[in-house]
């Protein structure tokens, strides 16, 4: 078996897996089996999913967090998390895709001549090692981007 696996460039574990699979059922084609779990113990119950959809139907503008709080106030024992509620709403086509924000390309403005415009920027205060405050202020020429001073 080791020589055969080496020849095909697979591990011995994979070789034995395929051999055992062939011996189990020779008529079935040798193909990968589904990796889907046989059962999902943590799956949201149908009752909880129905409760989420009912609250959404009563209040179409509410989002997952508000629906979560409402279900808690109503005394439901199995309240899904807001992220699970969002997944339930999406799965049942109850969330409308919001329009994406259109980002415009950044256009850098620049004056035609040096010293035509200076940009002044206060950088915020911070403490020096001797416990005094420093208030940095930068002055920048808009045309050349030359730093005229830091005060």
From TrEMBL:
It comes from the Bacteria. InterPro entries: Homeodomain-like_sf, Integrase_cat-core, RNaseH-like_sf, RNaseH_sf. Transmembrane segments: none annotated. Signal peptide: none annotated. Residues 28-50 are annotated as: Disordered. It holds the Pfam family HTH_32. GO terms for biological process: DNA integration. Residues 110-151 form the Integrase catalytic domain. GO terms for molecular function: nucleic acid binding. This is Transposase. It comes from Rhodopirellula sallentina SM41.
């Amino acid at each position: 078996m080791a020589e055969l696996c080496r020849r095909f460039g697979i591990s011995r574990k994979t070789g034995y897996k395929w051999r055992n699979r062939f011996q189990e059922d020779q008529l079935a084609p040798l193909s990968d089996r589904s990796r889907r779990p046989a059962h999902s113990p943590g799956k949201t119950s149908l009752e909880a999913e129905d409760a989420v959809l009912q609250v959404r139907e009563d209040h179409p503008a509410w989002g997952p967090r508000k629906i979560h709080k409402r279900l808690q106030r109503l005394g439901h024992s199995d309240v899904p998390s807001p992220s699970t509620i969002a997944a339930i709403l999406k799965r049942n086509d109850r969330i409308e895709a919001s329009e994406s924000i259109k980002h415009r390309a950044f256009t850098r403005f620049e004056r035609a001549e040096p010293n035509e415009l200076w940009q002044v920027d206060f950088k915020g205060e911070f403490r020096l090692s001797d416990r005094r405050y420093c208030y940095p202020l930068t002055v920048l020429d808009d045309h050349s981007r030359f730093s005229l001073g830091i005060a």
